[in-house]
Amino acid sequence: MVANLFLPHSLPLFTLPSKFLFLKLPSLPKRFPILSLSFSTLPQIPDPDLSYGPSLHKGTKPPLPIPLSPDQPIEETLINEESFTRVFNIAALRVPAKDCFALESRLRGHLLNWPRVRNIGRVPGDEVEDEIAELLANNQNGEEEDQNGVVSLNRRVYGKSESDGAPLSPVLYREKLAKTFDSRGYVNFRNLAKMSRPNQKKRRAAEGGEGGEGRRRNRKSEFSVLEVVEDEDEEGEDLEGLLGDEFQGRKKWRGSTRLLLLDERYGDRGVEELPQAIQVVMKEDTGKSMRPIIELVRCKLTLFYDYWQMNEILEALLPEGMIVPSAFETVGHIAHLNLRDEHLPYRKFIAKVILDKNKPKIQTVVNKIDAIQNDYRTMQLEVLAGNHSLVTKVVENGLRFQVDLATVYWNSRLATERQRLLNSFTRNDVVCDVFSGVGPIAISAAKIVKRVYANDLNPHAVEYLQRNCGLNKLDKKVKVFNMDGRRFIRAMFASDKAKSITQVVMNLPKDAAEYLDAFWGILRDRSKDEEFNLPMIHVYGFSKAEDPDFDFHQRIRIALAEVAVDVEMRRVRLVAPGKWMLCASFILPKSVAFANPVDI
Hints:
By secondary structure, the chain is an alpha/beta fold. It is 26% helix and 19% strand. It has helices spanning 36-39, 100-106, 130-136, 143-157, 170-182, 190-195, 200-207, 212-217, 240-243, 276-288, 310-317, 347-357, 415-423, 442-446, 459-471, 485-494, 548-560, 590-593, and strands at residues 2-5, 14-17, 86-96, 120-122, 224-229, 257-261, 295-303, 329-331, 334-337, 364-368, 381-386, 391-396, 399-404, 430-433, 451-455, 478-481, 503-506, 536-543, 568-576, 579-587. The chain has a seven-stranded mixed β-sheet with strand order 16-15-14-17-18-20-19. Residues 1-46, 72-77, 138-143, 210-220 and 231-251 have low confidence and may be disordered.
């Protein structure tokens, strides 16, 4: 007989044998049934070609999920999580808790070394108070001393321990006080009642209150269970009266114990076939006492759907030979995918696995349907899993940004490039952001520079830009505009603010270079003898040419109608095979700024 137990995240989940001392615990959630009975007749045949460690291709497994077909209505099909359950036969040493860490150091090279599965298993149920442990400790003087210890313990449990000089336990002492004061005006000791009041969280868990099961099932620690199988029965005192009628533990308590999980190679070996280091430890224990306290036990380690990584699940779900999608962009609580055409028939499955493996951080999974083709730079997204809210909050450079991916543009992969650009600004700069969006550069620059002028054509982006300025308390340093990029450039340099502008950012890679013609002749109405600091321009663009730096430089020369342009070129990132995103930084040439219309 076995009992099931989920342990905290710091320890793997174990199911222990009836001979261990612990109370009967609630059964596993329906999501994770124990299938050891049906698996016990199936052989576990190790594949020598497989690498060390757990794998969906190893162990004893239930029927695999039905292979997917592109013609299958995937939207109406659910992933059978139970089909990803795998059972592994392993061996373990049951050792005293006090000797556990010393033995672990000695046998570390022979213990189980699987990710997220600790090689030490805690044995629940045999953890008792030190005072009670002394009464139940192994006695070497015969059955008479064992019997006396049990009698003494029973006297203390029923509150009759004063006669033998042993003090009452704290719980029994509080109960005695409660009964005493009840007959003398118990209402005057209100705090006394709280001592024995059960914890609310524990009470809700025991009662299975509303939402309790759902919370337990979503815990990430519920990914494995260990079953310790022992055939021999031991004789001893029946402790059901002490620990409850539902107690199904071992009848002879030997003290607090731990399980040292041995390497998977030793799962079906006997003591004689184990490494010499393990045999020496067991012989040393046998030589110390006639009753060995270190035992070799057989275990079944069950790994559930929650244990396996995202790529392992997708590899089993997708057809053989198909590339497993593993990267996605995270925007707040949204996972943004850019799936290939071959993945589209399986997009619902991919989204569900990504959602399951990244909760609670990821709550929505979307896929970009088409390339950005509108003037507002908004993406057409399909919600594949989770809630349908595309409004989220992003934290970057210590600042908070509210974003609605349905109406504005955001790219988290450019965070490093934005930080590099911000590092080039100084406290005396005045920044003009022509295509600011919701303000990742403009608002971040406002913490550094003297003044920021931010513009965007998208009215929704301007609304979120103003909201984010207030959210970060920088609205006094950022002036917001809503107009076309060319009009904004000409308006800014035609005003009295032109002299103060030192940095111009044009982060619209698709066609920002085409807007450079707006700088032609912007200062022609001013005197050339007037002292004027020309701004540094940072323009972004894409290039698919064999030499992307030269190609983008040529486009800048054509847009400015100026050959002698000293440009500092930087490759930002490879956005697609053969397609680079570049940043060109240069000081606006004086010949361009003071050009006359006849020079065009």
